[in-house]
Structure formats: structure tokens, C-alpha cells
């Protein structure tokens, strides 16, 4: 069946089974490979994308349910929060193997959009759905605080 | 366009090769000027011929715009090796680090020797060679400038990729000198800097160079490779180790839209499809029959009790003696301390599940893989495709973690991918292992059992140490030294008149392999936790008890690490009610790491809030990446200590994803402080040595809190956290 | 004079190791004949579904309050099933699986039971069970309120809690509707993937609850 997907501001026609996970549509059909497969059952968060602005695990979203929604992936995530997170990630040297970081960044951006000055506890809550086997967590935490500070400074 | 000049010189393999190629260098660098780290990815995804760094010399190239391109011969899997190796070259070369770009070498034995990472050895093994390479390059630039300006070499200075003649005010960049420099004869014994002269090494400027592509989704991993006409394969593996395919029915699998072919290979049934999800669905639709007559059908508790029986001498199995001292037939008299430890299998669980891309075209095989041991993968691929290694064009990609899994000695999944690609009529195949395939697929850190009996002398220190380890061997030959390292040669034997250490290596069909820190992942737990229990027996402070033993063993580096650790952790200062500190100091692959963990118990669950780590890894090349590896290793080791266990029930793996094989998450990760001991010794590795101490540090804190010793890992076994759904 | 470890050429050691590896690999990697596809019977994938005793079974109990207690005890096989208990936790964190281990990742109930605003249930759970990932879903996916914590309570305690409008936030008709009609409760009989459903059917469960209410809604001790 043909579905129309709105990804990163562009419309795509996808001919696939409606129960195909959005993850594989993004990766295999649209070649947006920044979104990673890590577990396939919403345990690791490496496939996190934004669906109408909220973070979701694309391995657990059916193509049929994603059709019509605004989908945002790491390739096109933009705005002040995304810029601040990316710069903080580079300055802090957050990534190691880097495979989970697309998902970490997507979750961190969503966190900062809903809470511009998160506490450590907020970070625990928002980020504990994203696994990092390299355990870059201390730097992710510091990076989120850095990004929040940068956002705060640019606002004032 | 000029043809790249052929290097005029022939070098011994320990020396360097520098080839200045304006055309080659400009082409590669120009293509990627806006995306410095995308060289490999850009070339790869463009589908053109892979960049051949050998065409401009195996290690160094200088582009007309002044960027210095340094080739990383070893694999980047998160450990930051690319930055450490490049910094060795850049330091001696006096290159401008901010304009150094690092690219991944393809597999090439002639240029780079064995491309194998193990025992955290790459920093140590490249230390001389790469510094000499950089120093030789610097010398050639100096020669070129001296010739051009007709001045003496010793009047020239080099800094930030610029050669200057202060007396005359003349200067020229490496880019301006590259054509001349490439014509110079490299010195056979280039002068190396003394550690005090370093401008780059040991500074905070040595950072990894791949953070931006990895923070923006642009880094290309094997999972992301796309080639025209490419197929995706998944394989149904036997559910039990040692099981064989008895029969299969693919009639339903072939009905799945997108499935192209289904066939049996040596490791199971391969389903080949146009995309990943179709291949997975095709596999789900297979009907499979397995022959388990030679398979492992036992359960973990049964195997653990077998191991215990071996160590206790209740079952006769050959033991290899790896350390023996004194009259072991006449045990010492005194107070006896005795304990045992059980350790489960552990999966590596890198975030990128295993994958490989292969294209077989007659004699020629193209492979794209995050190869931890590229040279080994190349040979196995050649044997599988019945060709010669030189016909295997292996593009080494950044791996989404490995921790040893991508360095399995048998190259299992690379071989599997080549076998499938032999059956697709030349179409490239991307083999995808699901998370479940990876966790249930073996090559684990082996199960281990330790039995320790120590007789204390009248002074409270060990007078007699008996140690029996039971653990599967990692290699098909040798004496299983990988699983006794960390016990062998321990400084804790210093006061013992008699030492008798043995290892038994039982054989069973569950494949085991190297897992980050290898044998140290269990031996450190045993040695460090036993020492705390002995200190307690003797009524001594655990730090003081260690210090006495280290002094007796003349282990001065350990004493220094211990002293710094106590100072930084505030060892003798009080903590709030309910909290306790535990310490561990362990040497692994030449690096000594001491850790103090602050722990409390939340019901039965250990909560770790802070870990102080002190590291002696010789000369610290990149303090930033050493700290990163310490932080990551503590998280990795803590995951294993709290949760890690792969268990069998009737031969079937019970933990197949992160719900049943949990990892530490953000909310469980302690704050980590890393302190590096100043040193002028040659550097040793940091990818693994900070893993082993965390489990005993936590166990020792729990001992201090509750008085109860730990006798098995993980801490949370049987407490509802690690049990698979029943 | 310092003692130096004798150095063997790195290359010769590597070559020897490679030679050994090659030898082992040649033996291990030799091609072996493989079976071809053939007809096999379909796999038997039935999940055992326990049944509930029908209301009629309890008519024989003459004493109405004993009958009421017996009816509730039968319904309790559903109420105390992991499919139900997992979302009636005592803490802010749900459990999962038949082993009722803590939910991974560590989510919290949030103000409305649908997860903290920073990590909503809907990050992973959708309006329906999703076969491809095995993640369960329902339009009303959320935790029961803390006043309706069932874990660690006896069936009698759960019973009295249900009947206390201050804690259940329901009067008896609403309670019956919740048990017999609510679609999230109904999920327990259609949990998807390889999860064991609650015993019986929602209709049979609803009938037991209705009969229990009709017989005076007596609670076990």
C-alpha cells in the first residue's frame, strides 16, 4: 500500500506494508541512515525521531501510524536547541563509538524544547530511555547543561 | 594533473614513508574540505573507487590548503585511537593539530602490518613507529627548506606546520614545501623529542576528531552502507550452541514481499531480501528443524556446579599450573580464609549489532566492515571465498562499538556474510544480525569459577595462597593464560612462602572470546575483593593493607596510585550515614587503575553515586580521551557487575535484548572523576584497564556497609532484575 | 646496565600467529553440504489460555456472602495476574513481564499516570500492540492511580480498596464498567507478542464481577 510520509519538511511516497516499522522505512526506503537500529523493541533509543515534535522510538511506530504526522530525524533536526546540543556535544567530546548519539541528540533536543533549564533529575527522567554502551552518560549530562546554559545566555 | 610521484625511497618496515602528491592529496582533501571527517564515508557512498591512502604514502599527506592528512591504521570503535595515533605523528612532525585530519586506513598488510587491536596494545605498539614517522617527516620538511633557502638545518624551527628561518624572517608552510620534501631521503634514525618538549601530547588539545559527524548522524557505520543493487540478509541460527540444521521449509518465507532467496549455509538458513524488514519477516516465516545431538543442552546452574566440582577436586579434570612457589606439598599453618566466586557468561552488546557488507566477484571480494581485527577478517574472507588475501578489498569502517565482539578470532559474521554473497550472483549483500542474534550468538566472556584459600601468617598477611580458576579457554591453543592474567604475578603473593595457582579449561560448545579487559574482568574482582576480606580479618584498613603488600612486592607504581587515590577520594574522611566507600587497584595490560566507589543500598540494589579513578598509563597522550575511557569503562564494568549475565536454560540463551540483559542507564551512572599520574614511561593502553576495578570497588563498599562478602556476579542475580521472562 | 627484554621481530611472531590461524581456519571454513528446503508441518504456536469458572459454578454455594467471596476469589485470578498487577504498582514505577521485574527503562508515572512529561509512555507505546517490535499498546496506556496500588496487597485488601470510592474514584456501576468494558483492562486478554493473557475473557471476568456485586460485594479476609 502507498503511504505519504512527511519527513524533514518533505513529502515522500512509500509503497510498503503498513505494519513496517518507521525505522526501516527511514533507513532502507528513504536512506536516512542517521537513525539507527540498536534493539528493535524500544529498549535502547538509538532510533529516536520526532513525531509531531515529541520523541518516539521509530522501531515501534508503524508506517501506517506515521503517515500524516510531521516526522523529524537527526539529519534535519534544527533550531536553537539542536544547534546548542550539537555544539555542546562537540565541545565536550561526548561521543565515543557514536552509534547511539543520534538518538541521544534527538532526546536531548526534545528535553530542552520542553524544559529549557533541566535539573539532573530531569535529565535522568528524559534520557534514561537512551542506552549508551560506551557509557558517555556523564558527558551527555554535562553537554545538556552546557546547551541549556548557552540557550539561556542567548535568550537574555 | 600531475601523476603522483612514486616514492623514490625504499624503507625498512619500521621506518616511515612519506609521499607528497599534489594531485592525490588535493583530490581527496578538496572533495571533503567542508566535511573533514567524511573522507571515508563520502568516497564510500559515492560508489567510486575507495581512497587508497597508499597512493600518497601510508601515513601522511599534506594538501595544498595546508591540511595535514594522517591515516589511522587501526580501527576506531569508540576508543579514540585515531586521535592518539595521529597525535604521535603530529607531535613529532610539529604539525598544526587544528588542521590535522584523520582518515581510516583500509586493510593493507604491506603498509600497516597486522591491523589487530587487542590487549589495549595499539598506543603502546605504535608509540615508536609513529613518532619516528612524524619525526622523519619533520626532518624532510626541514631538509627541503634548508635546501631552498640555502641555510643550515639547525637554524630552522618548525611549529604549527610552518618551517621558519628566524634569522632571515623567511618561512614556508608544509603545503609549500611538500613537493620538495617528498624528494628528500628520510632519516634512518630521526631525533625524537624528550617528553618535556611535547607541545601537543599530554595537553587538552588532543581531542577526538569525529565528534561532529557522530553528533549529527553523518558518521557512516556498516549498518548505513548502501550500494546499488544491494540485498539484505538475515540468518536463522541454531537455537542451541553446537546444533545443526536438520531441515527447513521456506515456502512461507518466499511468499513475503521483498524476499529474494532462501538457502542453507554452514551457520543456518540465510534469508536474502530487498530490504531489512522483509528479510526479518522472511526469517520469521521459516519452518526450521534442528539436530541437537551434538548441542549444549544443559542449563547454567548445572554448568556452574560442574565448575565448582572441578575446583573443589570432586571431579577429575586436568589443571595447568600457572604460578607455583615454595613447598606446595607442605601447606603453611595459620588462620585459614577460604572463598569461591562464580561469574556468568557476558555478551558484548555493542550498540551497533553485528553487520557486514560483502560483494563477491569471482576472485575479487569487496568487504565493508567495522573490523576490529581487519587483518584476521581479510584472511578468513579469502579462505572462505577461496581466493588470496590480496584480492580481499576490505574497507574498514568506524564501528558502533566492539568491546571484542568484532574481533572474534574466527571472524564469524564476516565469513557468514561472504558465504551469502557467494550465492547472490555478484550482488552486494548487507548481513544484519538482530540484537537477539548478537546476544544469543555466543563468543561471550567465559563463565568462570574461582576457588581461593589463603593461610594468614601471624602478622595477618598471606603466608600461603592457593587459587584454582575454572574457565573455558579463549584460544584453541596455549594454556588459557588470558583467564589467569590478573592473578598471575599478583603483588598480593609477595608475603606468601607458598603459592599454588592452577587453571582448568573445560570444553563445551558455547563459543567464548575476548571481552573488554578479558580475564581481568573476573580476576580483578577476585583478587581485590579477597584482599579487602583479608584486611578485615587482620583488622587493618584496606588501603594500608594493600600498601604493605605493594611495598613487599616492590610495586612502587601501585603504591603511588594508591596514595593518590586515597588523597583524591578522601579515603579516611567520613561519609553520610548509609554510604560506604570501597576501593580496588588493579594492573591490566601495563596500565594501573585505582578506583574508589561511594555506594549505598536501596533495598537490595547497590547505588553508586561517585567513582574516583587514578590512572597510571605512562605518558598521557590525550588526557581528555583517557578520562572518556575511564568514564565509559566504569559504566561498562558497572553494567556487568549489576546486571550482566547470559544464562542457558536447556541450552537456550535466556537473555536476548536489553530488557533481559540490562545496561546501566543515565539514572544509574555515577559521577566519575579521573586523575592521571604524571609519568615519563612509554604510554600503555586505556581502552580496557579501567573496566576491572569497578566491580570489586562496589563489592568492597558493600562489604563495608553490610559485612557481607560478594561471592558471585552480577550483584542483582536472583533479585528479579536479570531474570528472563518466565 | 638495565636488563632488556629480548626482542623477537614483531613480524615473525605475527606471521606465526597468522599461520596458526590460517591452519585452524582452513579446517573450520571448508564448505559442507547443506540441506535443501522441503515440506515441514507448521509450528504449533498455541498459547495456553487458562479459563475462568463461569458464574453458574458458584450457584451451588448457598450462603450469599460465601458465594460473593468465592466469586471475587475467582475474579482475583485476573486481578492478581501480572498483566494487571504490572500497571498497579506500589511505587511510581511500573513492572513488566510475568516475572514482574521493574520496567526497563526506569519510567515514572507522571501527573496523569501516562508517564513523566519528559518521558511519556507514548515515547514507546502506541494505540495498539505492535507486532514488529513486540511493544504492547493501547489508546489509554497508563498506570493505575497510586491509591489503586495492588502489588504486594492481599486479595482482601484489593477488594476493600476497590469498594472504597475515595481510593478507587469509582462507584459500583463505574467499577463494573471498568472491569467489564474498559478497553485498557481488556488489553489483559490481548497482550500481544508472547505474553500470557489473563485467564478467561473480559466478558467472563465482567460476569464474575457483576455477580460478586449482586451478591453483596463481600471481600475475602
Task: Describe the structure concisely.
The complex is a heterotrimer of chains A (156), B (726) and C (221). Chain A is an alpha+beta fold.
Secondary-structure map with pairings?
The complex is a heterotrimer of chains A (156), B (726) and C (221).
Chain A: E1 2-7, E2 10-15, H1 22-29, E3 48-51, E4 54-57, H2 63-66, E5 70-72, H3 80-92, H4 101-114, H5 120-127, H6 137-155
Parallel strand pairs in A: 1-5
Antiparallel strand pairs in A: 1-2, 3-4, 3-5
Chain B: H1 22-31, H2 39-46, E1 60-62, E2 68-72, H3 81-93, E3 100-104, H4 109-112, H5 122-149, E4 157-159, E5 162-165, E6 170-173, H6 174-181, H7 211-215, E7 231-236, E8 244-249, E9 259-265, E10 268-273, H8 276-284, E11 287-291, H9 300-311, E12 320-325, E13 335-343, E14 355-361, E15 364-369, H10 374-385, E16 392-396, H11 412-421, E17 429-432, H12 435-439, E18 448-456, E19 462-471, E20 498-504, H13 520-538, H14 542-552, H15 556-569, E21 580-588, E22 591-602, E23 605-616, H16 623-642, E24 648-649, E25 652-653, E26 671-676, H17 694-706
Parallel strand pairs in B: 2-3, 7-17, 15-16, 19-20, 23-26
Antiparallel strand pairs in B: 1-2, 4-5, 5-6, 7-10, 8-11, 9-10, 12-20, 13-18, 14-15, 14-17, 18-19, 21-22, 22-23, 24-25
Helix pairs in contact in B: 3-5, 5-6, 10-11, 13-17, 14-15
Chain C: H1 10-28, H2 64-79, H3 82-85, E1 95-96, E2 101-102, E3 115-116, E4 119-120, H4 155-163, H5 165-168, H6 172-181, H7 183-186, H8 202-214
Can you give a write-up of this model?
Helix content of chain A is 42%, strand content 15%. Chain A is of the alpha+beta class and 156 residues long. Chain A has 2 domains: 2-72, Beta-grasp domain (Ubiquitin-like (UB roll), Roll), CATH 3.10.20; 80-155, DNA polymerase, domain 1, CATH 1.10.150.120. A 5-stranded mixed sheet of chain A has the order 2-1-5-3-4, with helices on both faces. In chain A, helix 4 (101-114) packs across helix 5. Chain A is globular, with a radius of gyration of 15 Å. The relative contact order of chain B is 0.11. Helix content of chain B is 28%, strand content 22%. Chain B folds into 3 domains: 22-215, 2-Layer Sandwich (Aldehyde Oxidoreductase, domain 4), CATH 3.30.365.10; 222-294 and 354-432, 2-Layer Sandwich (Aldehyde Oxidoreductase, domain 4), CATH 3.30.365; 301-344 and 444-706, Aldehyde Oxidoreductase, domain 4 (2-Layer Sandwich). Chain B has a 7-stranded mixed sheet, sandwiched between helices. A 5-stranded mixed sheet of chain B has the order 12-20-19-18-13, with helices on both faces. Chain C has a domain at 55-102 and 145-214. Helix content of chain C is 36%, strand content 4%. Chain C contains 8 helices and 4 strands. Chain C has a two-stranded antiparallel sheet with strand order 1-2. In chain C, strand 3 and strand 4 (119-120) form a beta hairpin. In chain C, helix 2 runs antiparallel to helix 8 (202-214). The termini of chain C are far apart. The model of chain C has no long low-confidence stretch (mean pLDDT 90). Chains A and B meet through helix 1, helix 3, helix 4, helix 5 and helix 6 of A and helix 7 and helix 16 of B.
Amino acid at each position: 500500500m502507498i503511504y505519504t510520509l512527511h519527513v524533514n519538511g518533505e513529502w515522500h511516497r512509500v509503497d510498503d506494508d503498513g505494519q513496517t516499522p518507521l525505522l526501516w522505512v527511514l533507513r532502507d526506503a528513504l536512506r536516512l541512515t542517521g537513525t539507527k537500529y540498536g534493539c528493535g523493541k524500544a529498549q535502547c533509543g538509538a532510533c529516536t525521531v520526532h513525531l509531531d515534535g515529541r520523541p518516539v522510538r521509530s522501531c515501534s511506530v508503524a508506517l501506517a501510524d506515521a503517515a500524516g504526522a510531521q516526522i523529524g530525524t537527526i539529519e534535519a533536526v534544527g533550531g536553537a536547541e539542536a544547534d546548542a546540543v550539537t555544539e555542546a556535544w562537540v565541545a565536550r567530546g561526548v561521543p565515543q563509538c557514536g552509534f547511539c548519539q543520534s538518538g541521544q541528540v534527538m532526546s536531548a533536543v526534545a528535553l530542552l524544547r520542553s524544559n529549557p533549564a533541566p535539573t539532573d533529575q530531569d535529565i535522568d527522567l528524559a534520557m534514561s530511555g537512551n542506552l549508551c554502551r560506551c557509557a558517555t552518560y556523564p558527558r551527555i549530562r554535562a553537554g545538556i547543561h552546557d546547551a541549556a546554559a548557552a540557550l539561556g545566555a542567548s535568550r537574555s | 594533473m600531475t601523476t603522483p610521484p612514486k616514492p623514490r625511497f625504499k624503507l625498512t618496515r619500521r621506518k616511515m614513508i612519506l609521499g607528497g602528491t599534489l594531485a592525490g592529496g588535493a583530490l581527496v582533501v578538496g572533495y571533503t574540505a567542508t566535511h573533514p571527517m567524511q573522507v571515508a564515508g563520502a568516497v564510500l557512498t559515492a560508489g567510486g573507487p575507495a581512497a587508497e591512502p597508499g597512493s600518497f604514502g601510508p601515513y601522511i599527506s599534506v594538501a595544498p590548503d595546508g591540511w595535514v592528512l594522517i591515516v589511522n591504521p587501526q580501527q576506531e570503535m569508540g576508543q579514540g585511537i585515531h586521535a592518539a595515533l595521529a597525535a604521535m605523528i603530529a607531535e613529532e612532525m610539529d604539525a598544526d593539530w587544528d588542521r590535522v585530519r584523520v582518515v581510516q586506513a583500509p586493510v593493507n598488510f604491506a603498509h600497516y602490518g597486522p591491523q589487530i587491536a587487542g590487549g589495549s596494545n595499539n598506543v603502546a605498539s605504535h608509540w615508536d613507529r609513529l613518532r619516528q614517522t612524524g619525526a622523519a617527516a619533520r626532518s624532510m620538511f626541514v631538509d627541503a627548506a634548508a635546501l631552498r633557502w640555502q641555510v643550515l638545518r639547525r637554524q630552522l624551527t618548525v611549529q604549527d606546520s610552518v618551517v621558519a628561518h628566524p634569522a632571515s624572517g623567511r618561512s614556508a608552510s608544509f603545503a609549500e614545501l611538500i613537493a620538495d620534501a617528498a624528494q628528500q631521503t628520510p632519516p634512518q634514525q630521526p631525533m625524537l623529542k624528550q617528553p618535556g618538549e611535547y607541545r601537543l601530547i599530554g595537553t587538552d588539545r588532543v581531542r577526538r576528531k569525529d565528534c561532529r559527524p557522530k553528533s549529527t548522524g553523518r558518521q557512516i557505520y556498516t549498518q548505513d552502507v548502501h550500494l546499488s543493487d544491494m540485498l539484505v540478509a538475515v540468518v536463522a541460527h541454531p537455537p542451541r550452541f553446537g546444533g545443526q540444521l536438520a531441515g527447513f521449509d521456506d515456502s512461507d518465507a518466499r511468499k513475503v514481499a521483498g524476499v529474494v532467496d532462501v538457502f542453507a549455509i554452514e551457520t543456518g538458513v540465510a534469508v536474502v531480501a530487498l530490504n531489512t524488514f522483509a528479510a526479518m519477516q522472511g526469517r520469521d516465516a521459516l519452518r526450521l528443524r534442528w539436530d541437537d545431538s551434538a548441542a549444549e543442552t544443559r542449563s547454567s546452574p548445572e554448568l556452574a556446579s560442574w565448575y565448582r566440582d572441578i575446583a573443589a577436586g570432586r571431579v577429575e579434570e586436568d589443571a595447568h599450573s600457572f604460578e607455583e612457589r615454595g613447598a606446595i606439598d607442605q601447606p603453611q599453618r595459620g588462620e585459614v580464609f577460604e572463598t569461591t566466586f562464580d561469574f556468568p557468561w557476558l555478551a558484548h552488546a555493542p550498540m551497533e549489532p553485528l553487520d557486514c557488507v560483502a560483494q563477491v566477484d569471482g576472485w575479487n571480494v569487496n568487504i565493508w566492515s567495522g573490523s576490529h581485527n581487519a587483518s584476521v577478517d581479510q584472511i578468513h574472507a579469502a579462505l572462505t571465498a577461496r581466493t588470496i588475501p590480496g584480492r580481499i578489498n576490505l574497507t574498514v569502517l568506524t564501528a558502533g562499538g566492539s568491546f571484542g565482539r568484532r574481533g572474534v578470532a574466527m571472524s564469524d559474521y564476516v565469513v557468514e556474510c561472504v558465504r551469502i554473497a557467494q550465492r547472490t550472483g555478484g550482488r552486494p549483500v548487507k548481513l544484519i544480525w538482530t540484537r537477539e542474534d548478537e546476544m544469543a550468538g555466543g563468543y561471550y566472556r567465559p563463565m568462570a569459577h574461582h576457588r581461593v584459600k589463603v593461610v594468614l601468617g601471624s602478622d595477618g598477611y598471606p603466608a600461603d595462597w592457593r587459587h584454582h580458576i575454572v574457565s573455558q579457554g579463549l584460544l584453541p591453543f596455549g594454556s588459557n593464560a588470558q583467564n589467569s592474567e590478573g592473578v598471575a604475578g599478583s603483588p598480593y603473593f609477595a608475603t606468601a612462602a607458598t603459592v599454588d595457582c592452577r587453571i582448568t579449561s573445560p570444553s563445551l560448545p558455547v563459543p567464548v572470546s575476548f571481552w573488554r579487559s578479558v580475564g581481568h574482568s573476573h580476576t580483578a574482582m577476585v583478587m581485590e575483593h579477597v584482599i579487602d576480606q583479608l584486611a578485615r580479618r587482620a583488622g587493618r584498613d584496606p588501603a594500608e593493607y594493600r600498601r604493605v603488600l605493594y611495598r613487599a612486592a616492590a610495586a612502587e607504581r601501585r603504591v603511588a596510585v594508591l596514595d593518590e587515590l586515597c588523597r583524591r577520594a578522601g579515603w579516611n574522611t567520613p561519609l553520610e550515614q548509609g554510604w560506604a566507600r570501597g576501593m580496588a587497584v588493579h594492573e591490566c595490560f601495563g596500565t594501573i587503575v585505582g578506583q574508589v566507589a561511594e555506594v549505598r543500598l536501596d533495598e537490595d540494589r547497590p547505588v553508586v553515586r561517585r567513582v574516583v579513578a587514578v590512572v597510571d598509563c605512562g605518558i598521557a597522550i590525550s588526557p581528555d580521551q583517557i578520562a572518556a575511557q575511564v568514564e565509559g569503562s566504569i559504566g561498562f564494568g558497572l553494567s556487568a557487575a549489576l546486571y550482566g549475565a547470559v544464562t542457558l536454560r536447556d541450552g537456550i540463551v535466556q537473555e536476548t535484548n536489553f530488557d533481559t540483559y540490562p545496561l546501566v542507564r543515565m539514572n544509574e551512572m555515577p559521577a566519575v572523576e579521573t586523575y592521571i599520574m604524571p609519568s615519563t614511561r612509554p604510554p600503555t593502553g586505556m581502552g580496557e584497564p579501567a573496566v576491572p576495578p569497578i566491580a570489586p570497588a562496589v563489592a568492597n563498599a558493600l562489604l563495608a556497609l553490610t559485612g557481607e562478602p560478594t561471592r558471585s556476579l552480577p550483584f542483582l542475580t536472583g533479585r528479579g532484575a536479570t531474570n528472563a521472562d518466565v | 646496565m638495565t636488563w632488556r627484554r629480548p626482542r623477537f621481530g614483531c613480524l615473525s611472531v605475527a606471521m606465526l600467529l597468522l599461520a596458526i590461524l590460517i591452519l585452524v581456519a582452513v579446517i573450520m571454513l571448508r564448505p559442507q553440504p547443506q540441506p535443501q528446503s522441503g515440506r515441514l508441518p507448521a509450528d504449533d504456536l498455541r498459547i495456553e489460555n487458562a479459563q475462568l469458572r463461569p458464574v453458574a459454578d458458584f450457584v451451588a454455594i448457598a450462603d450469599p456472602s460465601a458465594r460473593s467471596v468465592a466469586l471475587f476469589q475467582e475474579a482475583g485470578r485476573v486481578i492478581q495476574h501480572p498483566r494487571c498487577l504490572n500497571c498497579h504498582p506500589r511505587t511510581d514505577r511500573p513492572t513488566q513481564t510475568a516475572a514482574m521485574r521493574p520496567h526497563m527503562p526506569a519510567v515514572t508515572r507522571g501527573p496523569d499516570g501516562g508517564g513523566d512529561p519528559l518521558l511519556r509512555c507514548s515515547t514507546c507505546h502506541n494505540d495498539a500492540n505492535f507486532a514488529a517490535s513486540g511493544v504492547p499498546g493501547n489508546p489509554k496506556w497508563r498506570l493505575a492511580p497510586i491509591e489503586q496500588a495492588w502489588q504486594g496487597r492481599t486479595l482482601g485488601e484489593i477488594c476493600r480498596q476497590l469498594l472504597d470510592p475515595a481510593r478507587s474514584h469509582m462507584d459500583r456501576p463505574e467499577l463494573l464498567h471498568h472491569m467489564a468494558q474498559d478497553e485498557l483492562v481488556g488489553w489483559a486478554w490481548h497482550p500481544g507478542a508472547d505474553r500470557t493473557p489473563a485467564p478467561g475473557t473480559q466478558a467472563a471476568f465482567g460476569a464474575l464481577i457483576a455477580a460478586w456485586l449482586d451478591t453483596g460485594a463481600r471481600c475475602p479476609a
